[in-house]
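Inputs:
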Amino acid sequence: MVTLEDPFTKLLGIRSESAAPGTARAWATLRPEHLNLHGIAHGGFLYALADTAFALAANSHDVPAVALATHMEYLAPGQPGAELEATAAEVHLGRSTGLYRIEVRSGANLIATFTGTVFRKQPKDESTKDAKSTK
Amino acid sequence: MVTLEDPFTKLLGIRSESAAPGTARAWATLRPEHLNLHGIAHGGFLYALADTAFALAANSHDVPAVALATHMEYLAPGQPGAELEATAAEVHLGRSTGLYRIEVRSGANLIATFTGTVFRKQPKDESTKDAKSTK
Amino acid sequence: MVTLEDPFTKLLGIRSESAAPGTARAWATLRPEHLNLHGIAHGGFLYALADTAFALAANSHDVPAVALATHMEYLAPGQPGAELEATAAEVHLGRSTGLYRIEVRSGANLIATFTGTVFRKQPKDESTKDAKSTK
Amino acid sequence: MVTLEDPFTKLLGIRSESAAPGTARAWATLRPEHLNLHGIAHGGFLYALADTAFALAANSHDVPAVALATHMEYLAPGQPGAELEATAAEVHLGRSTGLYRIEVRSGANLIATFTGTVFRKQPKDESTKDAKSTK
């Protein structure tokens, strides 16, 4: 079981774990400081939750992964006090890139979806590439 | 001059203002609690900064705007202590939707780009909604 | 069973059908005129295939749906002669918007993913629009 | 002046040119076979036009560039007979990735926007990386 706790997720009260390579989940209770002016979950908070599961899943292999592009769709509001959970699944794992899909739920209710593409920094780009030079 | 201060942006130390309809900017100093494990700006923090400028620009007209879909591209790291600024411009303003483009800079350096689509809740929609309240 | 045949899909040799509301599939054989300079499926062709399944799924309810924003990730090349298929699933159906996810496969191989958001033109909107016809 | 003519763009009647590295434009007349059932430009055709300018701009340097992720926003319909033009600008050019923004216009009217991220296949990944190993 791997987790990811950095200063920003700590500030936001987001916890996370990866039980298997390519997967991860992140969760948090929606507290007053996570809300926007309408009294519902701030879009930036929902993104941070999804992004945490994304980063943990993408870095669950032995290759550092850096986010290139992400997108998010907002489907329903997150209500104060709600227990939110983001689950990440690996859609594609290539040599240099990876694609992950994250769903953010409040109980059974899907409230946002997230897709993220990473660049994978292969430690041994040189020898590996030579070995695949026929490609 | 309009600003947007909600609990979440307050937690993150993000300030913002809109000097003209359809535009906005948001700014913050990159503090230790905004960093990820690599010691650079957390992707979720950069998103929150862009999202704040986006929300303020989209709501600078007399029609409430709700985020539908956003995407972000990460171009360069945000360094600790940096003064970050997100500026939002209106690409399109239709009756029911609007499109905004946000650039996040650290000084002159472009470090992330963001695009957001909103649904605009036209005031007259309410009567329509009432008429369909059985749905 | 509903299908969607318009001049553009006809030009591209794309066929499609929707067996149930919210779902659709589109398929085509990858012919020489669908290729790019590298001799593999043109990104625009893969998009057109996904977009066809998207449009058919989104319009499978009794409400006209118009594409607002889409995005596509390219995962693997489409080889000449391949039988390609795009399958669309409905992730979210709201009053004014809908979200669809499309996968493009060559046999069992996932070669591209697509996500699309639509604006749904509710029939009752017309009266609202009439009331605002001065705009 | 560089151009890009492949079987797919030829089928669609799309022409293109790149006058300077990192930039490109593509253009076409909207003909009957480019339309959808509503009698306006098919979303897939507008995408193909934008994608052509994107690919040409991204490959205007001496490094092969492969599309990773793209997204498109549809703002206004393309009318039959219209002269459409897509112009591509380079937002970011890194060692391994590049970001491009494309606008599709019908005369002065902005009808769609497109953003694309490429992976750049550095021919000399090995030696270059070694030379930069202090990074």
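Residues 43-58 of chain A form the longest helix (16 residues). Flag for discussion at group meeting.
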